[in-house]
Task: inverse folding
């Protein structure tokens, strides 16, 4: 079983340029919402994230939302607002949500990257499914359990091909 090391570790999603994605042969992105595109307790992403989403879509990158959130109404509303396919309760790191994304986007996992803020769900799930794994710094640093999660993830917070 693959270890949960990210292929790429960046400060935030806006660093994923269309050029960088092309160099890595990534044609589609599976996007986590909470802690990745916006903090868990916010309803809207920052304007920079919305601009980035527009930029990568215009470059022809396929996008979908893949979230473990139990708040399906929130994931659905965000997906509809952006015109993106979405799935909540994806049960990452299990591979079912990744298989759904492959089918939905019409792309194999070898051409997809999961972008998320958690090692043991987003990154490990991507690795298990055969997708590239992009780890971003979490926007949820104010949650009570954040420091505990970071401590457990510390050994894996480095890029590995």
Result:
């Amino acid at each position: 079983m693959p270890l949960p090391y990210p292929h790429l570790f960046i400060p935030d999603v806006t660093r994923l340029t269309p050029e960088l994605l092309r160099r890595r042969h990534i044609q589609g992105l599976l996007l986590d919402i909470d802690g990745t595109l916006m903090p868990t307790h916010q309803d809207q992403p920052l304007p920079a994230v919305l601009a980035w989403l527009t930029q990568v879509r215009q470059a022809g990158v396929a996008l979908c939302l893949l979230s473990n959130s139990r708040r399906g109404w929130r994931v659905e509303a965000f997906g509809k607002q952006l015109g993106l396919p979405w799935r909540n309760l994806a049960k990452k790191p299990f591979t079912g949500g990744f298989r759904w994304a492959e089918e939905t986007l019409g792309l194999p996992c070898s051409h997809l990257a999961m972008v998320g803020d958690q090692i043991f769900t987003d990154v490990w799930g991507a690795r298990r499914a055969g997708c590239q794994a992009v780890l971003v710094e979490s926007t949820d640093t104010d949650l009570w359990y954040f420091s505990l999660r970071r401590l457990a993830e510390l050994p894996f917070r480095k890029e590995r091909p």
Observations:
- The chain has one domain: 8-155.
- The chain has a mean pLDDT of 91.
- The radius of gyration is 14 Å.
